[in-house]
Amino acid sequence: MKAPTLRLSRLALFIASISSCLPTPSAAAAAASSSSSSSTTSGTCVPTPISAAITNVTVANSPNSAIVRGVAMSVGSPAQNLAFMPYPWNNSLVYDTTNLCDALSTENQISCITRRGGAYSAVASKTQKGGSSAAVASDPSPFPSTALYSDTWNLNAAVALENYTFGVPVNDWGEQFYYPQNVIGLGPNSTFLNALYANEMIASRTYSFFWGQDGTTGQSNGSIVFGGYDSAKISGAVTSNYTAALNYTSCLWGLQVELSALGLFFHNGTKASILYDDQGAKTTPAIGCIDPGAPGMFDMPDYDQFEAFAEFTNYTSFYNYVGTSEMRSTGLNFWDSLYLEDDTPFTGDIDITFKDGPSVTVSNDQFVVPHIAMDDESGLWYQNTSLTDLLINPVATDNYPLRMCRHFMTFVYVMVNLDAGEFTVWAANSQSNSESLVAVNLDNHMIADSGICTDIPSPDGDGDGSSTSGSSSSSGTSGGASSASLGSGGIAGIAIGAVAGVAFVAAGVWFFVRRKKSAEAPLDASGTNGPPTYSDNPNGHRSAYEEAAAKNAAGIPNTPELYSEPVDPPRSELRGTDVYRAELE
């Protein structure tokens, strides 16, 4: 029997609600202008983009010093190190030591601190103040109720954003562990990017994302860049890209793409396309959505693309346990697939081609990985050597588009310019350990090196908070800053990235000065330390989720999330609507 499905029209209720939160260009500019507290200086330099490492963080207020991978930033003074992930909300969230877990979770608070990327203690920060409701933006459901605080956010060893207002949740927001961590809100009216722009710390409300590598081999750090991108993380010419208009109607992040190819590559040299619809017909091109915050490599519609994957790779557990929790990971790679004892894991790669854009090969070592589970007693991740994760989540939803999740950003580099209303995708240079930051203006044009300020460089990661020249900065700050286009914009939502030309920006357009402040207890942003090496189960017992799954398999009543049979009423992930994840039924 086909698993229960969720109609796209229901899902659209949530995605469409984002439109009410979209700012007009003039409104965003006015908000940035009104919140600016820094004075401008004469000159023709623009702020150097700000880079924050995606790396391992020993997170604050974890009793056993848990290590969590995420965007490494700290909050407060003394600094409290936290691991963040981006989310397309307009506001940012930081969890404290209460109300951390999903209401259905059986894990304790120690484990939840790890899941959430650490916990913030307001009373322990000397720079904490009460937040102002005037400093927050509207967000659609399921945004949780929050207590507002204002504090210093240290973005890296050299840059701090002072008096930034954020929320501390006072209730669970119903996302289970799909989006478990502390949140940097990067929605269309992002208060975080608005604050950076208003304080003249970035040239535009632009962010770029590269996950790095954390598979079985080739481990390395990633980064998120504000105000531009890192050209060292791009493979090939900068003009060899896919550029399109942001489309929040169809995709949560606005990052809708067209794919001309999606196929399997076997090591005997054979290939197989998996672009099929639920009737078994080949579909080209295919529509997909990029989601930098979701776990895993892909979310695939289960009765078309994923069924084709299962058939070609002989993934028998999909057919034996579809619609149940048996084939699901409840560990680090939440709700992705598990290879069980009767399965032979796929050893090939996945090839993807963007229509009129780059082609990338997703290597097997980054999506067929050891299972990482939570030890509930210590709150530490450990490696369960008896299981293997497949970082693909089959979704029982009609007309569900292929979703390319955070691990896919190992193979592509994504830049989003909220001011221009465009995004750009390049093939990533996953082997690069260097950094070369390029500023981008409001029109999505690259700004030449001569226009970039050098007083606050890209951090060198030596941990002393000192300022040295970044690799992309020029010592000269006089003269006009030139720019080149990344793409011609979205005609029918799709356009080919190309250099549109070089022009001089009039003197006086970019009079920016970077707010300087050394971060207390700075985090390493060097990109040299990879993901943690997980030990075997440190306490020799199963996690709470594994215990729950075992009870479920034995027919013992357990939490609704782990039931094999349909739950009544269904789990409502998007609070305030009737939208829910059908695969959890």
From TrEMBL:
UniProt KW Cytoplasm keyword: no
Entry annotated with the keyword Ubl conjugation: no
Keywords for this protein: Membrane, Signal, Transmembrane, Transmembrane helix
Membrane spanning stretches: 491-513
Chain intervals with Basic and acidic residues compositional bias: 568-585
Residue runs in coiled coils: none
Gene3D superfamilies: Acid Proteases
Compositionally biased tracts (Low complexity): 455-482
InterPro entries for this protein: PEPTIDASE_A1, Peptidase_aspartic_dom_sf
Signal peptide range: 1-28
SUPFAM superfamilies per UniProt: Acid proteases
Domain Peptidase A1 as annotated: residue spans: 189-241
Pfam families registered for this protein in UniProt: Asp
Residue span of region Disordered: 453-482, 522-585
Compositional bias of kind Polar residues: 526-540
Name of the featured protein: Peptidase A1 domain-containing protein
Provenance organism: Coniella lustricola
